[in-house]
Amino acid sequence: MNKTISVGHSPDADDIFMYYAIKFGWVSLENTKFENIALDIETLNQATLKGVYDICAISFALYPFVKDDFALLKTAVSFGEGYGPKLIKKKDTKLKRNFKVALSGEFTTNALLFKIAYPEARISYMNFLDIEKAVLDGVVDAGVLIHESILTYSSELEVEKEIWDIWVELCNGEDLPLPLGGMCLRRSIPLHDAIKYENALIKAVDVANKNRKTLAPMLLEKGLIRVDAPTLDKYLDLYANDNSVKMSEVQYKALNKLFELGYKSGHYQNLIKAEDFLIPNEYEELRSR
User: Fold this and answer.
1) In whole angstroms, what is the distance from residue 256 CA to residue 110 CA?
2) Average pLDDT over residues 184-197
3) Average pLDDT over residues 267-289
4) Among residues 155, 12, 146, 40, which one has the least CA distance to residue 83?
5) pLDDT at site 224
6) Which domains does the chain show, CATH number per domain?
7) Catalytic residue among 9, 147, 192, 267
8) Handedness of CA 158, 162, 166, 172 (dihedral sign)
9) How crowded is residue 239: how many other Cβ atoms within 10 Å of its Cβ?
């Protein structure tokens, strides 16, 4: 009898790309059905706080709040390297110290870094798809764009600050990629199964990445992607690439830096290290001896 495992992911291009190798049947797991739910990232963050899904995409900044109930997965990660979310405003405007800003969610990584850099800003939270219009309509003075919006925003807008630049400044010269999002898995899942699910997701991301020229047109053809083919290609270069398959040592170091910044700014009660909250694969190696 098949077990159904719920997987929450965002509808942006990199999450869909990394998951759909499973959806299209390129990667499968015996006696397991993965059921996907596509929702915006802050909705997924909130759902993870409530323990809604078995496996879920999250903003990395959320993880310290859910560490006791969810293990951090090593795969399907998005990091920025010289790029990332953008703080935008109307052209030729000057922002006051207490400017109104739209962010994509309280628990997003960009919100954490923004709050550290702009402590006096007045924050409104809204769906990331509505932020550009809110700035254009004057509802807010500025907004932080994420996902594909960083490539497609109106020519009436300009970048006030790159979140990447805020990250670099906060890292004090350390050369680290910007941790944006990853996935977590419910701790109540038996360890043997958890290892299998993580390995299946690692394989799915790897297969998708290696077969990008086949998978990307399929996603476009089915209307699953909000952008055109050239924009999708550029976006996947940024966020669904070789570095998304399995976290590296430098990515762990960057993630720990994010947690440290959040702790020092009073965002988190405890200082944690990412490596302490992974699924212990050595368990499987010991069982097979």
Assistant:
1) 16
2) 96
3) 80
4) 146
5) 66
6) 3-79+178-287 (3.40.190.10), 86-170 (3.40.190.10)
7) 147
8) negative
9) 25
